[in-house]
């Protein structure tokens, strides 16, 4: 049954995406950028609805009051394709720094370009990165919310952290609050996994780290905040969903946390 539901969801997800892009493109590209954002928001909401209705996976968000009214940086733990879009309905005017290859996908890349996302060559250095930073400052000055994954790529639940220093440089240069976000999406929709699992989990938006810290101090504080809360939420999520088959990284981390608690 799990496999059947997962296959049905995958079919519904891609059909929902393709049909919306084709049918709504004339409206999307004629609307001003900010008004057009309502179309991706509705798409994101519909995908989470499909996960709830077909797979039986749902989530709730804690800490919405921690999102600043002005421009800020969202710094989520990244585990799943789900977390790349599920929070879009709750973000006012987000901007992503994303790998440039995504811009080459027909229709999808055009949608992304319309929203003035910032493409980057991950192997780039020097002048290219200066241009990326200038674009980032320009968008942030317009009050947008920058979404950047501090680890750069998806990591399995419970995996050892592998943070990149780039977020500290952006924090130093743009001078806005950074909002850490944790959730264990990957327990329900794993990376490159066909099967999706039912259950309910929490997304936790943490108090922002205010601008003005030394970049090294900020970097250490962000890692400590994300990892401490991620561990706490991993325990809560697994206790609330005892049926979940745990990936080896999550099982190992839970065993380590249990051992720490008994010493």
TrEMBL record:
Pathway noted in the entry: Lipid metabolism
Keywords: Acyltransferase, Membrane, Transferase, Transmembrane, Transmembrane helix
Pfam families cross-referenced by the UniProt entry: Acyltransferase
InterPro entries: Plipid/glycerol_acylTrfase (IPR002123)
Occurrences of domain Phospholipid/glycerol acyltransferase (ranges): 72-186
Ranges annotated as spanning the membrane: 12-31
UniProt GO molecular function: acyltransferase activity
Annotated protein name in UniProt: 1-acyl-sn-glycerol-3-phosphate acyltransferase
């Amino acid at each position: 049954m799990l496999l059947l539901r997962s296959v049905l969801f995958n079919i519904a997800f891609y059909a929902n995406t393709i049909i919306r892009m084709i049918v709504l493109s004339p409206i999307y590209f004629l609307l001003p950028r900010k008004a057009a954002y309502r179309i991706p928001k509705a798409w994101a909401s519909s995908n989470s609805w499909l996960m709830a209705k077909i797979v039986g996976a749902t989530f709730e968000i804690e800490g919405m009051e921690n999102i600043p009214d002005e421009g800020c940086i969202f710094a989520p733990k990244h585990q799943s394709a789900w977390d790349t879009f599920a929070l879009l309905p709750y973000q006012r005017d987000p901007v992503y720094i994303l790998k440039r290859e995504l811009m080459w996908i027909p229709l999808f890349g055009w949608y992304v370009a319309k929203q003035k996302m910032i493409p980057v060559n991950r192997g780039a250095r020097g002048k290219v990165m200066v241009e990326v930073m200038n674009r980032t400052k320009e968008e942030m000055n317009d009050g947008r919310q920058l979404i950047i994954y501090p680890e750069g790529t998806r990591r399995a639940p419970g995996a050892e952290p592998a943070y990149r220093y780039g977020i500290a440089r952006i924090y130093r240069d743009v001078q806005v609050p950074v909002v850490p976000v944790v959730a264990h999406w990957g327990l329900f929709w794993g990376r490159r996994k066909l099967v999706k699992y039912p259950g309910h989990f929490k997304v936790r938006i943490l108090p922002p780290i205010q601008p003005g810290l030394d970049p090294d101090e900020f970097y250490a504080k962000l890692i400590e905040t994300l990892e401490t809360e991620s561990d706490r939420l991993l325990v809560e999520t697994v206790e609330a969903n005892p049926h979940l088959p745990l990936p080896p990284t999550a099982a190992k981390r839970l065993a380590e946390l249990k051992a720490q608690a008994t010493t």
